[in-house]
Amino acid sequence: MQLEVIRGPAASGKTTQLRRIAKADGQDEGHILLAKEFTHAALKSRIHFLAARGARVVCIDECSEEQIELLRRLSAALPNIHIHAAVAA
């Protein structure tokens, strides 16, 4: 798995950047995961589910630093997926 963390203050364009990435992959805005709606276990489960369905790109908005660490730990298990995660700095 490749993890790209997009950092910046509120209203700095992080979500807009995720929308562009999702659109380039053929996804609509509704496919962007909102991290605050997931427990750590649920986020991990959702990413595994998407990978099993063939997703190669996953966009996640409003991640916490703890969720970023979780995503880093997932890297060995999901070598073929690229995650773009936005974190407010």
Quick overview:
This protein is α/β, with parallel strands linked by helices. It has helices at residues 14-24, 40-52, 65-74, and strands spanning 2-8, 33-34, 57-61, 82-88.
Annotation keywords:
single chain, 89 residues, alpha/beta, Rossmann fold, 4-stranded parallel beta sheet, 3 helices, globular
Structure description:
The protein has 89 residues and is α/β, with parallel strands linked by helices. The protein has one domain (2-88): Rossmann fold (3-Layer(aba) Sandwich). 38% of the residues lie in helices and 24% in strands. The chain has helices at 14-24, 40-52, 65-74, and strands at 2-8, 33-34, 57-61, 82-88. A four-stranded parallel beta sheet has the order 1-4-3-2, sandwiched between helices.
| Rg calculated over all Cα atoms | 12 Å
CATH superfamily: P-loop containing nucleotide triphosphate hydrolases
Order of strands across the main sheet? 1-4-3-2
Low-confidence stretches: none
Helix count equals: 3
User: What do the pLDDT scores average to?
Assistant: 93
**Portion of residues within helices:** 25-40%
Structural class: alpha/beta
Total domains, how many?
1
Element order: H for helix, E for strand:
EHEHEHE
Number of strands: 4
Which band does the percent of strand residues land in?
15-25%
Q: What distance lies between the first and last C-alpha atoms, to the nearest angstrom?
A: 23 Å
Outline the biggest β-sheet.
4 strands, parallel
The CATH first-level class comes to Alpha Beta
Shape: globular
Q: Assign the CATH architecture.
A: 3-Layer(aba) Sandwich
CATH-assigned fold name: Rossmann fold
